[in-house]
Design brief:
The complex is a heterodimer. Chain A has a single domain, classed as MetI-like (MetI-like fold, Orthogonal Bundle), CATH 1.10.3720.10. Chain A is 71% helix and 0% strand. Chain B is of the alpha+beta class. Chain B has three domains: 173 residues, Periplasmic binding protein-like II (D-Maltodextrin-Binding Protein, domain 2, 3-Layer(aba) Sandwich); 189 residues, Periplasmic binding protein-like II (D-Maltodextrin-Binding Protein, domain 2, 3-Layer(aba) Sandwich); 63 residues, no CATH class. Chain B has 20 helices and 18 strands. In chain B, helix 3 packs across helix 4 and helix 18 runs antiparallel to helix 19. The longest helix of chain B has 35 residues. The termini of chain B are far apart. About 4% of the residues of chain B have low confidence.
Chain lengths: 299, 518
Amino acid sequence: MKSMIKPRIKSDDILIGCFYVLLGLFSLLCLLPILMVISGSFSTETEIAVHGFSLLPQGFSLDTYNYVLSRQMNTLASAYGVTIFVTLVGTVLSVTITTCFAYVVSVKDFQHANKLAFFAYFTMLFSGGMLPWYLVCTRYYHLQDTLWGLILPYCMNVFYMYLVRNYINGIPYELTESARIDGAGYFQTFVKVILPLSKAGIVTIVLFYALTYWNDFYLPLMLVTDDKYFSMQYILYKMNANIQYLATNSTGFGADHIALPTQTVKMAITCIAIGPIALVYPFVQKYFVKGVTVGALKG
Amino acid sequence: MKFKNVKRIASLGLAVIMSAGLMTGCSSSVESGDSAAKTEETAKEEESVKAADPIPVRMIMYGEESPRMKELMENEIYQKVLEEINVELELDYLPWTEVNGGKTELMFSAGEKFMCFTDTDFTSKMVGKGYFADLTDVLEANAPDLYANSDMEANIKQFTINDRIYSVPIGNKPNAGEDYLIMVRKDLMEEVGVEEINNIEDLENFYTLCKEKHPDYIGLGRSLKHTIFNGAIESDKNVLFINSFVFTDGNAEIDSTLYSYYESEEFKQACEIAKRWREMGIIPSYLLSNPQQSSSEFAAGRAMFAVGANDRIFEMMSSLRATVPDAVLENVYLGDISEKPLMTRGGYNTAYAISAAVEDPEELAAYVKVLNLLQKNQEWVDLWTYGIEGTDYTLTDSGSVERICTDEILPSWLCVNTKFRRYADYITEEQIETFNTQADGSIMFKNAGFVFDTESVKTEYAQLQTVKSEYLDPIYTGFKDYDENIDEAIEKLKDAGIDKYVAEMQKQFDEFMKNKAD
């Protein structure tokens, strides 16, 4: 076995070295804006106004953090709580519903499987439109200003359902058949045979769902006005949306007179928003990578 | 065997649940039967109690709610409104991107009960769809202070469609010359020895002198609007824009002729100035790609002037002084004001519309009463603008405000009324005098109250917008040469249907002017 691996030659080393340098430079390029954000958050407003942004803080000051944390600590802490709760509960719920649906429509001897699959597929082709969606969410399900409003509308993504269904369809039928012969019901087959064998597919949609919930600002925008249900992304979205609107629509509604958040405050809120995730990410990234690549090499 | 037992238990359980459901249904119908049998007297009693109940009113604001405002809305302001007009006021905030569309429109179409900002275009659009409440019968009776403290008769004309009032204008201040004036940094003028700016040459000279002293400053901060060149171009028309594509002569009171702006001589001259400004560096290189940067430069005190308005300088000075404590702004007009007088859209700051879902007259009256409080008297205007005296601000001997808490209560521009206005300490009597008299001799927009129904040309309008941003904006801002690029741009405009668009607007405007004359 060992003899089959070709020893590395000098040109390989050079190539690998080049890749390291290129990737290193690219990483630095990606890091630059983040460094500027961090540096900006530790600078004084006047220095930023006079000299612009730089890699190192100008007139180092913790005043901005003091200001933001003393005034918005509760909102930010609550927004973090909401985002984490919605991501965890939403992901678990969505994955459960999606995999269950996917299994049901993949069962070969279930006569309504195709009808159910079409029922789901139809929503991919024709959307009800925003107004009916909003009416259903607000008037019938009363999802405004509730945590469920941030979870339920995303509970089943049909595309992900088809992804899992195709994965399940790839599992040899003989395996489920033998489980049935051994006396397992549908539920037992699902839990003990299908789920363990579909792990790779499920991990993928876990990642997708988690990212959807984490990055979502649309549902809070549509369904939430009470700030105790604001998510972190919505707070950031709101801040940017306000700034962009006011910068490009200077004459509407006395918009000229509205004081925009100062540069340092914007930077500090961005740091607080991305900080914990940036700190945790290096420790969990191996699981993300594993999740995406598991099952990628088969046979 | 085991499975069968489970089935039996499950069936039994379901049967129990169903029976319980039926019983509940019966009991509620019995109850409703009871309630139907209530005596008329009891019903009347209940009604009188109901009448005394506070009426909930939901007001949508845009932007961010400050922590202090949140606190006040839970305590003092909430309580004061409740005591004054028996209304439970709730304030909800949406991002500015949702104003006049987006979620706001969705909420109107979903039949939610609320009120929010509007303007003439949005009012026309929403009234057409039946989303705005008709306020004709409730406005005057429930908003006496709005009528007493502002020129409501003139202001509501712009929100009256087929003799029915659909929005409530708020505020009272001279708005003459909005975007036709330039607010110049007076402190920089003094620094470089420029005493007066009366025309475009003076302004360019000021820029050159100032640039020598402050090479890192830009000339024009914020965005560019051709309206500021109105007095500087050689034209016998006082250019009054109906929208970015069409203008009329603001001086010709009874003439209803409309002109296609991008095909006009006025546009050509304005573009030539813009091109020169771009080459001189007055217009920064990033104005098109990053307008936000240009606004930031002005706010940071690194721009020499910006498009102004009569009233705008006070608010802008207040924010500018956070960075440049000695900054002073002054409005200038590039031209002869006697030939092309300033024009005004009316004396209001903004307007509120109430959702058509608020049908009950008493409820509708409650909404109007809340709007009345925005301009009721000095005490209420101070409350909405500064908060609680002693806690959020104190008054100096001269009557100006010293803020203890700098959080925004309601946006400071919202309740501005010259009757109740408090100026900052650094505003001189001369500036106030200029502010009060600058609008003297101004003329009313002759299109005030005209709302263009775009329904029959909506495809053309959408295409024109695309052509504008792709071909015309770079010429407009001086980034592309007029002579070299205008032919292609006009050709694209023609293809997009500018002729049909202008003809349709002309038809509607002729009718509007005819009705106005009648």
